[in-house]
Amino acid sequence: MRGMVRENIVLPSNFIYPLFIHDEDFNTAIESMPGCERHSLDSMIKEVGEAFELGVKTFVLFPKVADELKTNLGVEAYNPEGIVPRAVRMIKEAYPESIVCTDVALDPYSDQGHDGVVEDGKI
């Protein structure tokens, strides 16, 4: 009876799994988000595999870019060998049916920490 009158069915395939990644060989805890980790690319692909087996097939990537790669113009965002393009390729090669979303914000690549370019004190 409940199945006949319920409004929503939430399935694993309805979820988008956020993956916080960095270009290190180890995982680190994200202090501001207890229970969440920033993954190495090897750890990320294992995490994707576990989620994929449970029916989660969509992922969104949030990179932490090394400080030395950050610039006012966020040039590293255009690097085809940067962390996000490599992560997308790894996921799609291992799980071709997956959907991989990326965050188009500039702040991970900006030495100013903003989503836009800072010129003369203006964003």
From TrEMBL:
Annotated GO CC locations: cytosol
One GO BP: protoporphyrinogen IX biosynthetic process
Record-stated family: Belongs to the ALAD family.
InterPro entries: ALAD, Aldolase_TIM
Stored Gene3D superfamilies: Aldolase class I
EC assignment: 4.2.1.24
Reactions accelerated catalytically: 2 5-aminolevulinate = porphobilinogen + 2 H2O + H(+)
Key words, A-Z: Heme biosynthesis, Lyase, Porphyrin biosynthesis
Protein name as it appears in the record: porphobilinogen synthase
GO molecular function, one term: porphobilinogen synthase activity
SUPFAM superfamilies given in the database record: Aldolase
Domain of life: Eukaryota
Job of this protein: Catalyzes an early step in the biosynthesis of tetrapyrroles. Binds two molecules of 5-aminolevulinate per subunit, each at a distinct site, and catalyzes their condensation to form porphobilinogen.
